[in-house]
Amino acid sequence: MSIHQHSFPNESADYRVSRNKLLLAEMELREKIEEVAALRRQLPSGGQIKEDYIFEELELTSGEVKTRRFSELFNGKANLIMYSYMFGDTWENPCPSCTAVIDGFNGYSHHVRQQVELVVTAKASCEKLFKLAKGRGWNNIRLVSDKKNTYHQDYLAQFGSEEKLIPMLNVFVNQDSEVRHFWATEMVFCSKEGQHPRHVDLIWPLWNLLDMTPQGRGNDWLPKVTY
């Protein structure tokens, strides 16, 4: 079956047959991703925000810290994506996987923020976040600290002590001056046997890139803070 008229130099007929079979599966996957995204958009309104939390926002250039209410984080936009960073104030180092995710955010957040707001929040103080951001060259993301509020606990990114943080991405909507929860990456709680509990692969290009190679993502490799 011919799906398109193109081919690569010296490829075999067997390769093209197998590649066409895979291409059909890739097209089905794209369709399924779009179908799931449409279902997500049809969700009814979630719960009203528990409180208008007070955060400390870090200015990445100067290290200046400003107080921001949750409702102010939207910057006048209707939608807000909040990523909970596994980095506590008592932690020596942050979560390597979360750090890899935020490395990506730093590269493309200026595109995302043309449409919606994107904010990274952590239990670590702004002082610790500033030191980390400078070391990693982060200059294009919004970093806030919820060290002094219960956002992490309320929105399922902390269970018990500060040592028990988990990654969580939440989406909120601000409509008619009323802030409501919309969606979260709850797959982190729903891993099947033998399946890694990654829940944000669609926003984490690292794994998608590796999946395009014969080696794949491997069984035991994970990103590190430093190499």
Mean pLDDT: 93
* Overall structural domain count: 2
Strand % is 15-25%
Spatial strand arrangement across the major sheet: 2-1-5-4-3-6-7
Q: What's the total helix number?
A: 5
Note the main attributes of this structure.
single chain; alpha/beta; Glutaredoxin; 5 helices; 7 strands; globular
Q: Would you kindly provide a written description of the structure presented here, covering whatever features stand out?
A:
By secondary structure, this protein is an alpha/beta fold. The chain has 2 domains: 11-42; 54-186, 3-Layer(aba) Sandwich (Glutaredoxin), CATH 3.40.30.10. The chain is built from 5 helices and 7 strands, in the order αβββαβαβαββα. It has helices spanning 13-41, 96-112, 126-136, 151-154, 205-211; strands at residues 54-58, 65-69, 79-85, 117-122, 143-145, 168-175, 178-184. The chain has a 7-stranded mixed sheet with strand order 2-1-5-4-3-6-7. Strand 6 (168-175) and strand 7 form a beta hairpin. The mean pLDDT is 93.
Give the helix/strand layout.
Layout: H1 13-41, E1 54-58, E2 65-69, E3 79-85, H2 96-112, E4 117-122, H3 126-136, E5 143-145, H4 151-154, E6 168-175, E7 178-184, H5 205-211
Parallel strand pairs: 3-4, 4-5
Antiparallel strand pairs: 1-2, 1-5, 3-6, 6-7
